[in-house]
Design a protein that fits this description.
Rossmann fold; binds flavin mononucleotide; single chain; 8-stranded mixed beta sheet; 15 helices; about 400 residues
């Protein structure tokens, strides 16, 4: 499986003969759906021109750290934060040494230090350089720090020698990068996610809605699918395409969402309620468009079904995760909701903070469960979704047996 849909890849290219292969690597990463930004060391630009990578990635190539213009556009910290993964291919012996000693003396090394994303390197060098004790020690150290070492492969080398030191083929590297996201933590589990707003009709042309874009719920559905789950996504009206490898059921109102959830819930191991479900609907929606007559108009609102609470109260309820949008006392309100609705976990966000939450690309979550909590600091929603899914998988496996569907012990 080589699906990197919506993944942001920083490709670092260092000074080695194999740099020419990275042109093909950019093409393949993009074919797999990744958004790619290339960063080159100064030496790398002696082997392949930045123009080649710019044309293939469709973005300017970053080469220098101390460049005021580049810092204004997408500086080293912005790039470090932007990345879902940093792949250095080819990684020269020199670069491995700089990475091992924590150097921050050019853009690529600084970025590798500054990023919270996984860093993977694909070494490529003469076999003597690879076997040299210094390189062996550097690689051991890097591996122990959690850096992924991809390859090298054995074979005929540019220098005419044969042995280990060839960069892995681009297709193999794409497969391995994809594998970083396909964690398998929820392999075989069935996960139901709700996302987006619900819209409650006032008359045939007007409705009551909310500002949910569905981005968080869609990111959670994709992350669950990448973790190996079989995902059903029940979605209110949003402007997003269905995430790959998920089955989407479209609904409009809270009642429809409730009914769709209840029709699917029997088969599910985990329920994640990320939708912003309307709490009220208009008691009697008008059959014809309400005419404007300059007078005050009163609407009588009636509560909608509480989907989360209904699911959590089922006799054989799945592991239930709720979302809470709060504007104050986030953790405290989340804990109250966790207990009141009988949930297994709740992910709360402060929608009063500018730039995160509703209709934004970033979010920050306070995740609470009985006896524990974790802060997931501000990050793009897709990365946050992956962290949340790992946390859900961790808690789910702690509270359930691994046999069968796992719906035996709560
Ligand atoms: C023709 C040529 C080919 C080279 N190929 C490699 C290589 O495949 N792997 C490597 O580690 N170094 C190779 N080097 C040496 C690196 O280019 C050199 O160590 C450089 O300083 C690496 O800089 P960087 O790590 O900042 O990119 C080569 C040098 C030359 C002149």
């Amino acid at each position: 499986m080589t699906d990197l849909s919506s993944k942001r890849v920083v490709l670092g290219v260092t000074g080695g003969i194999a740099a020419y292969k990275s042109a093909d690597l950019v093409r393949r990463l993009r074919e797999a759906g990744a958004d790619v930004r290339v960063v080159m060391t100064r030496s790398a630009t002696e082997f392949v021109t930045p123009l080649t990578f710019q044309a293939l990635s469709n973005h300017p190539v970053a080469t220098t750290l101390l460049d005021a213009d580049a810092e204004q556009a997408m500086g080293h910290i912005a790039l470090a934060r932007w990345a879902d993964v940093v792949l250095v291919a080819p990684a020269s012996a020199n670069f491995l040494s700089r990475l091992a000693r924590g150097a921050a003396d050019d853009l690529l090394s600084t970025l590798c230090l500054a990023t919270g994303a996984p860093v993977a390197v694909a070494p490529a060098m003469n076999r003597q350089m690879w076997d040299n004790r210094a390189t062996v020690d550097n690689v051991t150290l890097l591996r122990s720090r959690g850096i992924y070492i991809y390859g090298p492969a054995e074979g005929m080398q540019a220098c005419g020698e044969t042995g280990p030191g060839r960069m892995l083929e681009p297709a193999d590297l794409v497969r391995r990068v994809t594998g970083l996201f396909a964690t398998g933590r929820l392999a075989g589990r069935r996960v139901l996610v709700t996302a987006g707003p619900t819209l409650e009709d006032i008359d045939p042309v007007r409705f009551i809605g909310n500002r949910s874009s569905g981005k968080m719920g869609y990111a959670v559905a994709l992350a669950a699918a990448e973790a190996g789950a079989n995902v059903v996504l029940i979605s209110g009206p949003v402007a997003l395409p269905a995430p790959p490898r998920t089955r989407r059921i479209d609904v409009r109102t809270a009642q429809q969402m409730h009914d769709a959830v209840m029709a699917q819930i029997g088969a599910q191991d985990i329920f994640i309620g990320a939708a912003a479900v309307a709490d009220y609907r208009v008691a009697q929606a008008a059959e014809q468009k309400i005419k404007k007559d300059g007078q005050a108009l009163q609407l009588t609102l009636t509560p909608t079904p509480d989907i989360l609470a209904a699911v959590a109260a089922l006799p054989d309820a799945p592991f239930c995760v709720g979302f809470a949008a709060e504007t104050e006392a986030v953790a405290q309100n989340a804990r109250t909701k966790l207990a009141a609705k009988g949930l297994d976990m709740i992910a709360a966000n402060n929608v009063a903070v500018d730039g995160i939450g509703f209709d934004a690309d970033e979010n920050a979550l306070t995740v609470c469960w009985r006896g524990g909590a974790r802060e997931l600091p501000r990050a793009p929603k897709d990365r946050l979704a992956r962290e949340l899914i790992s946390l859900i998988a961790e808690r789910y496996h702690e509270t359930h047996t691994t046999e069968d569907t796992g719906r035996t012990h709560r």
